[in-house]
Design a protein that fits this description.
Blueprint lengths: L16 H11 L8 E4 L10 E5 L10 H8 L9 E4 L3 H13 L3 E5 L5 H9 L3 E4 L4 H15 L2 E2 L6 H17 L5 E5 L4 H10 L4 E7 L4 H8 L12 H4 L6 H10 L2 E5 L1 H15 L5 H12 L10 E5 L6 H5 L8
Parallel strand pairs: 2-10, 3-4, 3-6, 4-5, 7-8, 7-10, 8-9
Antiparallel strand pairs: 1-2
Helix pairs in contact: 1-6, 2-3, 2-6, 3-4, 6-7, 7-10, 11-12
């Protein structure tokens, strides 16, 4: 049974709505206000309308520049510049933000990082380092570089500035679509969902969605502490954290309502649905939240106002061309 966190205690979140408002004021000149698409429930085989937040249209192809800019604009950057470890999207975002602000950047990615994401990192002018099988390997290499060079690290998820920056997505979404009852968010290391959950706390259910083969938050909620998990999923290059961040777990345990798992096949179906029905090019991680709705892992109540985040679009065109067109219901 999926963990349900509705009975969590009522501690004060370490990241507050005020922190998120301040982050939004800081980064607003540097990020896009991404669009929302409203879908009739009949398009998704249920009776309630759905709001898709299309964050894949953000700079660098994902939500990640929000946290990257908030980090870089919140602290002094040394001459050695910045360093980041990433499955790909965070690296592309840090490379983009560093370029826009005039800082050198070193980005460390594992061998599973997609060519589309590697191309974006290179295009932004960052020094790219590819090595290791998984995100944890890239993180170890990045930390060694920081120690040797004096560069500051921009953590992909387990940092206050990152969480507050990602939380600006929730602020913006609520401005665009007031009174959402629930939002479905894909989870990797937890930076995005913890920021969005800190914003929506008490006003909307926040539903975590992870691949069956990459369940860092789900496992942590079951164990009541961050734990290491094995990672083997179609979405591993964006949702492939081996463990949920400590700060992120603290926020999610308090503010996330429910944690769901979806099969890779459901993620691929959601990618195909977005591409063939809406001409939206979402990567596997970007389609994971929608997979919960399409597969029935999440079933809205009658009249429930549901938001689904499409959080990333760094996918190769040939991958989309191979997706079969899902049959009409």
């Amino acid at each position: 049974m999926a963990p349900d966190c509705t009975t969590a205690n009522a501690k004060t979140s370490p990241v507050t709505p005020d922190d998120i408002r301040e982050a939004y004021a800081r980064i607003r000149p540097h990020v896009r206000r991404t669009p929302v698409m409203d879908l009739a429930g009949s398009e998704l085989d249920h009776d309630t309308a759905v709001s898709l937040k299309l964050e894949l249209f953000q700079h660098a192809g994902s939500f990640k520049p929000r946290g990257a800019f908030n980090n870089l604009l919140s602290q002094e950057v040394p001459a050695a510049g910045v360093a980041a470890a990433s499955g790909g999207n965070h690296g592309a975002a840090v490379a983009y933000a560093a370029h826009q602000l005039g800082y050198p950047a070193d980005i460390f990615v594992p061998e599973i990082s997609s060519p589309a994401k590697i191309a974006k990192i290179r295009a932004a002018g960052a020094r790219l380092h590819v090595g290791g099988a998984r995100y944890a390997d890239a993180l170890a290499a990045c930390e060694a570089h920081q120690q040797a060079s004096g560069a500051i690290g921009i953590h992909a998820y387990d940092a206050m500035e990152t969480v507050a920056g990602q939380g600006t997505l929730g602020l913006e979404w609520e401005e665009q679509v007031p009174e959402l009852d629930s939002v479905l968010i894909a989870v990797g290391g937890g930076g995005l969902i913890s920021g969005v959950a800190a914003w929506f706390s008490g006003r909307a259910k926040v539903i975590a969605v992870e691949p069956q083969g990459s369940r860092a938050l789900h496992a942590a909620l079951e164990a009541d502490a961050p734990v290491d998990v094995s990672v083997e999923s179609l979405a591993a290059d964006s949702l492939g954290a081996r463990s949920i961040g400590g700060l992120n777990f603290e926020i999610c345990r308090e503010h996330v309502t429910q944690s769901l798992l979806v099969e890779d096949g459901a993620i691929e179906t959601a990618m195909a649905w977005l591409w063939h029905r809406l001409q939206i090019a979402a990567e596997p991680g970007g389609a994971t939240a929608l997979a919960a709705l399409l597969s029935g892992a999440y079933r809205p109540q009658p009249g429930e106002r549901v938001g689904v985040l499409v959080c990333g679009g760094n996918v190769a065109p040939e991958t989309l061309a191979e997706l079969p067109n899902p049959s009409l219901a």
